[in-house]
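In response to the reviewer comment on reproducibility (Comment 2.3), we provide here a single inverse folding case reported in full, input and output, so that an independent group could reproduce the run without further information from us. The structure tokens appear first.
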């Protein structure tokens, strides 16, 4: 029996040991995997930063994070060990060190997990400088609130967490039952016994320990309350932003009293918790009650019964602070306000401002993106993510242009083509860009391309490196410089191939391939015979993600924009911002439902080379103390504005996101009078316009205009304002972009008595005009739909012109074509085929004088050769006309409004049979394309011209007859000829 029992015991011990061994091995493997995975990521990150030239940024972040985090863990661990050992000793519990070390380490790691980016907060507190602006209440520099206060509050929060964890741990140690000797409570301890029956001596010993911990919690709470006094200055919960009358007059002294009371309560608790437990408990309860009264009840009562009955008078000083400091926080204090007295616009004014009028944008952003996609994506796997607005020198003239990058979209590859080799090695990059002037189109209503096609064709610009490896939508990683050449582009049904020549990537050495295989869980990195030691692994190819990976402490604009450099390379410019939510007396704003802040500066411009991925950070606002603090932490990260290459600096523009934020704040904070502000008597709203079937806020838009008092035109961002619930325009805001004027804001207010039409009123006049309304209804039938572009307002010679493009699009095929241009001035709305014609109707005798004979849909001017009017829309690529270079005898190089190569209403030489045939073919083609696109007006115009030419031909040909020739005017009228409309 004994032997059997022993055998069973040995078996159980063996099984237990085996289980424990397996668990230990499993735990060790898990730790090794976690540590190994971390080291793999760390090594690959270091290589990535190193090849970009930012290894110092990587190591500084890593070392600072480690030092600060290690300091927190060591501090919390050591004090935790001391606390737990004291508790076990006083509780008379004999436990091993493991019961002390493991809980203390766990608590320390838990605190670290709650610390967030404490290392960066600590560094900002150390390196952050002064704003040279004092707060109006305590006279402290704004830097105290931005840099010091967040770090102190974070330390207080971590201290409270640590104390509460160890307070609970001590309670459990002292009061969880254990097998110990029970001692009878003596008479001198009978008082405590009455309160807590069954209280033992080790409980009594623990009271002092618990009292010290609880007192520590209250002391930290006192420090937190003291910091909250400063936090009143950026509080957003009251009727006044920042500290109002109730805050300063009752809450502030209440907080001060609470700080003193907390310190006294903490000391009493620490000294009296053992022999004066009842007093200590009463004091703790009193502390909670006083806190409730001081923080909540008394300020609310004071606000209701003292402040509210005479709120304007009491809050006026604090409203003045809020207006002043909100304007400073959002950079509106530097804005220049001027009156814009609107006068009459004469024909001579138009002639003197021809350079401005020629740059009026008639291409709508959204419609142009759709057209680019139809005409110039060329292959399913190319995509235009966005269309950017910029200015370039074209033929020696500053011209506003629209441009877009043709990026690779692997999602549109056929399913059978989505193999490892294709996705990782073959289809690696986009190709080229398109660019067209914003102020003109071809005669068929299409963009008049300055750059187009693959490879890029242009008579105005050169593109030496069109390949796009880094862009806005590029998310996937690829491997380049392999034995499998990359797909470049298709030429005459033949795929051209390419090998990447850049050097900014992770080298695919054997060690790096092993690390990448482990990280990406992709065994093909090791097995592929195409990958060599010379191959490069390109990752983080999205330009925003790329910048954020290097400098995550900056906030990045949602819209990087493309730039073509002087040497023909493509690059992206990305605006980066510094933000804070702790600027005293400043209104907080939640933008796009994500970030909440009450201070913002566009301090940094980021450039990313679309081919190599090289990235640079330039400081554009050296007056921003936040970016200067980052510069001290990372001295090798930033460059000065002067170091930006000139060809990129010329394309710096006022950032749309910052302008949008500032214009939102300006809706209320243009009111400088606190009484007017309090009553919201003069609130503004954004001008409205029609988008589809909805009335929406007009978005900021870029324009080339000449500001009042200036001698030359410049590139600005502008927005218009109306009063709330009204439609008349009261002001417009301009952000300047060029040269030394970059970053300046101008606010032009209209005289109070002036009735300036708002954009919504102009939209209403378009809808209410019977001729225009009937024409729009006609065009919206028969499988077509009408698209109204952005209604833009142009200040010219002390007056305003309103311009809106009109597109017609087939409901079966998204291919919008510019058909008409609305121009509004002085209660007159004109709809003509071109901007020039509309202006000539308003101002008889006006001509743009672009040196062309075009009478086409937008009065286009040719950039010459491949980028001329006929080159903008190739047949076979979704375009609307054949490439001039592909037409016999250069027929396509003639002005397309007169297909026979003559002026409007003229005829080709009827003795030249070839010219006549070419004219007839061209007119027939134009008519078919207009009909297919739902452009009934275009179809009617082409048909009328075709019949006119046939009639002339019949007259010159003996015995010939043209049936129905007499009906030509009716055909033109039914098709919506402009002359018939008038």
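Designed residues, in position order:
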């Amino acid at each position: 029996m004994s032997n059997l029992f022993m055998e069973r015991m040995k078996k159980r011990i063996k099984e237990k040991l085996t289980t424990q061994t397996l668990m230990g091995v499993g735990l060790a493997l898990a730790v090794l995997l976690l540590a190994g995975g971390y080291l793999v990521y760390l090594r690959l990150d270091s290589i990535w930063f190193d090849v970009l030239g930012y290894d110092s940024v990587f190591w500084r972040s890593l070392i600072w994070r480690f030092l600060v985090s290690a300091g927190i863990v060591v501090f919390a661990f050591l004090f935790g060990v001391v606390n737990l050992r004291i508790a076990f000793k006083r509780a008379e519990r004999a436990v091993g060190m493991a019961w002390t070390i493991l809980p203390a380490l766990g608590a320390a790691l838990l605190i670290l997990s709650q610390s967030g980016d404490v290392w960066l907060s600590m560094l900002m507190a150390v390196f952050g400088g002064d704003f040279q602006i004092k707060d109006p209440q305590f006279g402290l520099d704004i830097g105290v609130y931005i840099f010091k206060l967040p770090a102190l509050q974070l330390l207080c929060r971590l201290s409270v967490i640590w104390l509460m964890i160890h307070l609970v741990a001590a309670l459990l140690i002292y009061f969880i039952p254990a097998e110990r000797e029970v001692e009878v409570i003596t008479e001198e301890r009978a008082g405590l016994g009455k309160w807590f029956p069954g209280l033992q001596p080790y409980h009594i010993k623990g009271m002092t320990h618990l009292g010290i911990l609880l007192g520590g919690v209250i002391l930290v709470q006192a420090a937190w309350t003291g910091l909250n006094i400063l936090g009143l200055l950026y509080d957003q919960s009251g009727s006044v932003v920042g500290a109002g009358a109730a805050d300063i007059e009752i809450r502030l002294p209440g907080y001060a009293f609470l700080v003193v009371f907390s310190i006294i309560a903490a000391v009493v608790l620490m000294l009296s918790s053992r022999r004066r437990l009842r007093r200590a408990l009463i004091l703790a309860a009193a502390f909670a009650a006083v806190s409730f009264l001081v923080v909540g009840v008394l300020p609310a009562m004071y606000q209701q019964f003292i402040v509210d009955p005479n709120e304007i008078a009491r809050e006026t000083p604090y409203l003045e602070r809020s207006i002043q400091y909100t304007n400073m926080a959002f950079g509106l204090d530097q804005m220049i306000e001027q009156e814009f007295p609107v006068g009459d616009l004469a024909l001579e004014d138009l002639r003197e401002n021809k350079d401005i009028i020629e740059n009026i944008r008639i291409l709508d952003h959204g419609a142009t993106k759709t057209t680019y996609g139809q005409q110039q994506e060329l292959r399913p796997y190319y995509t235009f993510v966005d269309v950017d607005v910029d200015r370039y020198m074209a033929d020696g003239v500053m011209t506003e242009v629209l441009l877009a990058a043709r990026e690779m979209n692997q999602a549109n590859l056929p399913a059978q083509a989505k193999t490892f080799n294709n996705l990782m090695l073959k289809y690696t990059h986009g190709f080229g860009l398109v660019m067209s002037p914003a102020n003109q189109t071809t005669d068929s209503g299409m963009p008049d391309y300055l750059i187009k096609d693959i490879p890029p064709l242009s008579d105005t610009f050169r593109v030496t490196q069109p390949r796009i490896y880094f862009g806005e939508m590029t998310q996937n990683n690829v491997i380049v410089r392999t034995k499998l050449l990359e797909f470049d582009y298709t030429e005459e049904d033949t795929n051209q191939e390419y090998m990447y020549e850049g050097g900014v990537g992770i080298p695919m050495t054997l060690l790096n391939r092993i690390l990448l295989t482990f990280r990406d869980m992709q065994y093909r990195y090791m097995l592929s015979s195409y990958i060599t030691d010379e191959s490069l692994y390109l990752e983080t190819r999205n330009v925003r993600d790329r910048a954020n990976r290097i400098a995550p402490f900056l906030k990045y604009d949602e819209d990087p924009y493309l730039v073509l450099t002087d040497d023909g390379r493509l690059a992206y410019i990305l605006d980066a911002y510094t933000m804070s939510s702790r600027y005293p007396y400043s209104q907080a704003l939640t933008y796009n439902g994500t970030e909440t802040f009450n201070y913002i500066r566009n301090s940094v411009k980021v450039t990313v080379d679309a081919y190599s991925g090289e990235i640079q950070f330039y400081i554009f606002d050296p007056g921003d103390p936040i970016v200067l603090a980052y510069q001290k932490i990372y001295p090798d990260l930033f460059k000065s504005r002067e170091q930006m290459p000139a060809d990129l600096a010329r394309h710096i523009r006022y950032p749309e996101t910052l302008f949008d934020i500032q214009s939102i704040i300006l809706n209320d904070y243009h009111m400088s009078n606190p009484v007017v502000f309090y009553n919201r008597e003069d609130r503004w709203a954004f001008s409205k316009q029609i988008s589809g079937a909805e009335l929406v806020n007009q978005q900021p838009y870029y324009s080339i205009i000449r500001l009042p008092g200036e001698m030359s035109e410049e590139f600005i961002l502008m927005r218009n304002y109306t009063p709330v619930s009204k439609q008349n325009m009261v002001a417009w805001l301009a952000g300047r972009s060029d040269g030394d004027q970059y970053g300046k804001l101008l606010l032009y207010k209209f005289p109070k008595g002036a009735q300036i039409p708002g954009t919504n009123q102009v939209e209403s006049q378009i809808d209410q005009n019977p001729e225009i309304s009937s024409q729009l209804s006609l065009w919206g039938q028969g499988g077509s739909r009408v698209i109204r572009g952005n209604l833009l307002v142009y200040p010219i010679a002390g007056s305003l012109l309103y311009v809106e493009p009109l597109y017609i699009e087939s409901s079966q095929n998204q291919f919008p074509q510019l058909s008409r241009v609305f121009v509004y001035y002085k209660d007159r709305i004109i709809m003509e085929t071109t901007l020039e014609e509309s202006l000539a109707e308003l101002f008889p005798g006006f001509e743009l004088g672009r040196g062309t004979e075009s009478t086409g849909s937008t009065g286009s001017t040719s950039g010459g050769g491949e980028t001329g009017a006929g080159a903008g829309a190739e047949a076979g690529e979704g375009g609307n006309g054949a490439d001039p270079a592909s037409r016999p005898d250069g027929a396509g190089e003639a002005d397309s409004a007169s297909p026979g190569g003559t002026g409007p209403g003229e005829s080709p030489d009827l003795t030249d049979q070839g010219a006549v045939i070419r004219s007839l073919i061209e007119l027939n083609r134009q008519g078919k394309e207009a009909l297919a696109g739902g452009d009934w007006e275009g179809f009617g115009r082409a048909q009328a011209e075709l019949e006119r030419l046939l009639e002339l031909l019949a007259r010159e040909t003996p015995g010939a007859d043209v049936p129905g020739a007499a009906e030509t005017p009716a055909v033109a009228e039914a098709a919506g000829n402009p002359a018939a409309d008038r």
